[in-house]
Amino acid sequence: MAPPTYTGRFAPSPTGPLHAGSLVAALASWLDARAHGGRWLLRIEDVDTPRGVPGADATIVAQLAACGLRPDEAPLYQSARGALYEAALQQLITQGRAYPCGCTRQDIALALAAAGHARARHGELVYPGTCRHGLQCQPARAWRFLTQAGTLHWTDRRLGPQSQDVQQQVGDFALRRADGLWAYQLAVVVDDAAQGVSHVVRGQDLADNTARQIQLQAALGLATPRYLHTPLVLGANGEKLSKQNGAAPLDLSDPLAALNLAAAVLGLTAQAGPLPQALAHWTQVWGQSHGH
């Protein structure tokens, strides 16, 4: 029997238990996979080891299971996949699309200030290309991706037409960080391709990363998945609900109640009755509105 053409994934970082915001992304990605008759995978994005919380991965798996969201394969751990990321980096170096950089964050901030560029609150610290044509800051600390000039256009399944000039709005971004850890952008692109991910459903806070990932996919000769970015759950301060700003772990004493809150964010109506029946109803409704 041929494998399904649709493969989706939920890819949390094990920095703590899931909260209300992460359940929205988990539910949406699960519903999209089920509505398309596809596979749903779980990837533990634990490359940023200093931020990891021991046991958080097992907690996340248990939380998902309590909500009836079970992956079709055993979870994949990024911490075990360094050899693949190294191979991708070497490919980019060979192609002239990656270069060593010695700049610290302070070096970058000073270069931007000297050029009269102010950084917006929560905005990108746009890399000014200091080491693009050879190391200007010593010693080499990180590896950066040589971005291409011009505006990249793509279509998000929920947000519609999107565009970004990566070189101007982000700059040459890190592939391997100064602390030796693999950067999120490289790891996620390599793993999505290796797992055959055809559709990425994730929180809207990650939409800004999409253009970077599409450029990386093109450079590595990898397919670009279709993207859908879900609405965010905001905290009382108006900021995105996150573990960093004190989001409470999910209360799963009543899993359906937690799922109903997540479903409401996705524009789905609350359900009563058995959990499998509620999930089946939402899958059907999701398929009618997101079946393309």
Radius of gyration computed on alpha carbons:
20 Å
Q: Beta-strand percentage?
A: 5-15%
Count of individual helical segments? 9
Name the strands of the widest sheet in spatial order: 1-2-3
Structural class determined from secondary elements: alpha/beta
User: Oligomeric state of the chains?
Assistant: single chain
* DSSP, total strands: 10
Name the shape in a single word.
Answer: elongated
How can the largest sheet be summarized? 3 strands, parallel
| Average pLDDT over all residues | 91
What's the helix-strand series? Answer: EHEHEHEHEEEHEHEHEHH
Poorly predicted ranges? none
Give the fraction of residues assigned to helices. 25-40%
Distance between the termini: 23 Å
